[in-house]
Specification:
Elements lengths: L2 H25 L14 H10 L2 H15 L2 H17 L8 H21 L6 H45 L4
Length: about 170
């Protein structure tokens, strides 16, 4: 894969991540409040489900099915691509959080879909999946932020060296 081809894919994944995020943001008010994605304890989720009308549950179900199911694949691929672009293939182990976050988030979404249709028996599993997903997403962000910082420092050093070479009369 060429460098420009890889960056083009990353840009497309970034746009898709942004589009799905905006879609979720604008759809959320139709659910009547917080999304189940941000609640982890069984009691919080059950309380939220009891507060929701049938229309709100249906809206949340559709949001989860149409936007939140593809979302982990898109954001996971985007973040994994950033790791590969930043660190190359030599540090493939940094992809582990992304590779784990995708199935964890998808599993959480399936449990939410079931709960929104009245099957709440798996909410105790969701209580484990939701914080795990958050930890994995945070773990993906750390190497990306580190790579960005290293890149910035390298650019500043190169710029400083370039300007010192330009001002040096021996050149």
């Amino acid at each position: 894969m060429s460098q420009s081809n890889g960056l083009g894919r990353l840009f497309l994944l970034f746009i898709l991540t942004l589009a799905i995020s905006l879609g979720i943001f604008f759809w959320t008010p139709r659910t009547g409040g917080s999304l189940l994605d941000f609640l982890s304890s069984v009691s919080e989720v059950q309380e939220r489900l009891q507060q929701m009308s049938a229309a709100q549950k249906n809206s949340h179900f559709l949001l989860t099915l149409l936007l939140d199911m593809p979302f982990p694949i898109v954001y996971g691929s985007f973040l994994a691509g950033l790791v590969l672009e930043s660190f190359g293939k030599t540090k493939k182990w940094l992809l582990i959080p992304a590779l784990l976050a995708i199935p964890v988030d998808l599993s959480e979404n399936v449990i939410q879909l079931l709960a929104l249709r009245g099957y709440e028996a798996l909410l105790s599993v969701k209580a484990i999946l939701t914080p795990t997903k958050m930890i994995l997403v945070f773990a993906m962000a750390i190497p990306i932020a580190l790579a960005a910082l290293i890149n910035l420092i390298r650019q500043r050093v190169a710029l400083a060296q370039s300007s010192s070479n330009d001002s040096n009369p021996s050149n």
